[in-house]
Amino acid sequence: MKQRGGKSRNGRAVGRFQMNVQVRGEATQIAILEGRSLVEHYVSKPTDDTTQIHGNIYIGKVENVLPGMEAAFIDIATPKNAVLYRSDVVHDASELDKRADPPRIEDVLKSKQLIVCQVTKNPIAHKGARLTQEVSLPGRFVVLVPNSSTFGISKRLPDDERKRLRQLLDRVKPKQHGVIVRTAAEGVTAEELERDVARLVKQWDRISELAAKQNRPGLLYREPELAVRFIREEFSAEYRAVVIDDEALYADVKEYVEAVAPALAERVQFYDRKAEPLPIFERFHVMEQLAKAVDRKVWLPSGGSLIIEATEALTVIDVNTGRNVGSSNLEETVFRNNLEAAEEIARQLRLRDIGGIIVIDFIDMEIKENRDQVGRQFREALSRDKTRTQVFAISELGLVEMTRKRIGEGLLESVSTICEPCEGRGVLLASEFLS
Asked: Which residues form a coiled coil (predicted)?
């Protein structure tokens, strides 16, 4: 089969994206550029051992079961107890009364019981992590779901490729485990697929052995370093380069890519800080774009603007015409401004990694067709976001309600601390009011 190395021009790889990795002390930052524009940013810090634990697998001890909440609090040896909801509990139907369908959480979990569980949502503020008992191990081409009959192939793949992969999977799928084929598997050989599955099965066997020996809450499996994790999830022929300014991390990533995607290994490059005149983020204009990404105000091409305000409950985005006075009539000016805003809001949600409930106040439009078109433009822009979103129709007041899956803290939270004088409120009460 033809090697999937991607296109090249004048000997240089061609792709829409570039991944820049900057390491400073114990902190690692990843910047994803589309062309020259920053579209995603991630940070990994030493404190992430207790806050950025999405995907980690633990032995947990049931602390207490709350039937009225249909949830249980689980000690996983982190500062805050995690929560496990009934919908995420896995049970053995043969051990339960068949009349209990579905079983109540108190029938499945008991206080002090030890369970294997995986984090599906990082702890945020005063909330603990969210757990599931349906563990999954992601590989380069497949996701292994241990002790499950789950079977699936990414719907993003063409029908003929899905059919081909199904035939391959029938030959390599382990009987006792479920497998989900990822989009990255397009064009893989049977040998590549089998190698990925075998590696994950071996990984699960090690986790199972460790779990059998452990009699108290603790970590069984830690997700790999941020850069390796991102390579596993996203790296493809669409990336023209992965540029890393730390020699040790470069070696780890290079070794991983050579093992799972050798045709792309030459795209992993070392950025020598000692030899280069500028730090990597300055060389590729990341810093200036990051500075704008944490500002509450974002300018639109025609002079309009967005105001982005985050609260504990939700994020509010206000659309303004600003300096955009248009050239024909008010409805047309507002419509064009809202179209620009729809595109930019989708970009900002990705870049700032904003999650949870989001309310967008578009400028009022009188014509329903214009409102519908802005809604379509917004959904189209969001389709490029790999994080799951749900958008509702624009209301008569121009408000859009939407949700974006929250996994961890956003960009602003990852690069800032709470202001001590105002305790994060953003205002100081007048001294004469308090006297």
From this structure: none
C-alpha dist (Å) from residue 128 to 132, 238, 292, 392: 13, 36, 31, 29
pTM: 0.78
Instruction: Kindly provide the residue ranges of all beta strands, DSSP E only, lying in 1-129, ordered along the sequence.
Output: 8-9, 12-13, 17-24, 27-34, 37-44, 57-66, 71-75, 82-85, 114-121
pLDDT of residue 68: 94
The domain total for the chain is: 3
pLDDT at 99 over 70: no
Q: Which of 91, 106, 135 is the last residue of a domain?
A: 135
pLDDT at residue 283, rounded to an integer = 95
Are 289 and 300 found together in one domain? Answer: no
d(CA 67, CA 90): 16
User: Which residues does 324 contact at the CB level (< 8 Å), separation at least 6?
Assistant: 300, 302, 303, 304, 333, 336, 337
Phi, psi at residue 244, to the nearest 5°? -125, 135
Whose CA is closest to 294, among 304, 309, 313, 280? 309
pLDDT at 277 over 60: yes
Which one is predicted more confidently, 130 or 326?
A: 130
Do 318 and 286 fall into the same domain? no
Are residues 373 and 286 part of one domain? no
Q: Is 403 helix (H, G, I), strand (E, B) or coil?
A: strand
Q: pLDDT tens, 138-193?
A: 999 999 999 998 889 998 899 999 999 999 988 888 989 999 999 889 888 999 89
Q: Which residue has the tokens 């497949």?
A: 142
Same domain for 23 and 70, yes or no, is no
The long-range contacts involving 378-383, CB below 8 angstroms and separated by at least 24 positions, are 378/342, 378/345, 378/346, 381/342, 381/343, 381/345, 381/346, 381/347, 382/346, 382/349
Q: Which residues make Cβ contacts (< 8 Å) with residue 254, sequence separation at least 6?
A: 265, 268
What are the pLDDT digits (tens) for 378-429?
999 999 888 899 998 777 777 899 999 887 678 887 777 778 888 777 787 7
The b/e string for 335-361 (b: 16+ C-beta within 10 A; e otherwise) is bbbbbbbbebbbbbbbbbbbbbebebb
The tokens 């009460």 sit on which residue? 429
Q: Nearest-CA neighbor of 153 among 204, 202, 193, 117? A: 193
For residue 171, the 8-state DSSP code is H
Best CA proximity match to 34, nearest among 22, 18, 20, 13: 18
